[in-house]
């Protein structure tokens, strides 16, 4: 279903993604982080829906639909390194900082900051080309609520 999309995203010289495709790719990354600890619970799904609704001015129904599509894309997407680097090449820096904030919202949705999630977020921030300072500031904004 998403083979052409992934092929375009991971091409050697990808062109910037249209908004709808960027939304889908970024939401798929949220899903990947949410699934990284082996559990993908309703609180994480709800958080992803709220993030999508807020960031993209979607209705709850539209946000849930986008998350469903993102779940399917994430399942078919290449490894995190290639997938994240592809997003970096196709999405502007400012949008990627927003993604780091959203990823922290998902990682902290259960109220617990875990070492493996910290490590994954550091890796993803680096692969997205986000410097350590901007990543730390993004996390702090999320923690302050």
UniProtKB/TrEMBL annotation:
SUPFAM superfamilies: TerB-like (SSF158682)
Domain Co-chaperone DjlA N-terminal: 23-140
Matching Gene3D superfamilies: TerB-like
InterPro entries, alphabetized: DjlA_N (IPR007791), TerB-like (IPR029024)
Species assigned in the record: Thetidibacter halocola
Official protein name in the record: TerB family tellurite resistance protein
Superkingdom assignment: Bacteria
């Amino acid at each position: 279903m998403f083979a052409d999309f992934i092929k375009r995203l991971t091409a050697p010289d990808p062109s910037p993604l249209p908004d709808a495709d960027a939304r889908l790719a970024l939401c798929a990354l949220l899903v990947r982080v949410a699934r990284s600890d082996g559990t993908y619970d309703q609180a994480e799904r709800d958080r992803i829906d709220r993030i999508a609704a807020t960031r993209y001015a979607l209705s709850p129904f539209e946000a849930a639909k986008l998350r469903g599509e993102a779940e399917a894309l994430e399942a078919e997407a290449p490894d995190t390194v290639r997938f994240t680097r592809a997003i970096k090449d196709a999405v502007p820096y400012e949008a990627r900082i927003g993604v780091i904030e959203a990823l922290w919202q998902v990682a902290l949705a259960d109220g617990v900051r875990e070492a493996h999630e910290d490590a994954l977020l550091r890796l993803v921030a680096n692969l997205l080309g986000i410097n350590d300072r901007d990543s730390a500031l993004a996390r702090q904004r999320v923690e302050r609520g």
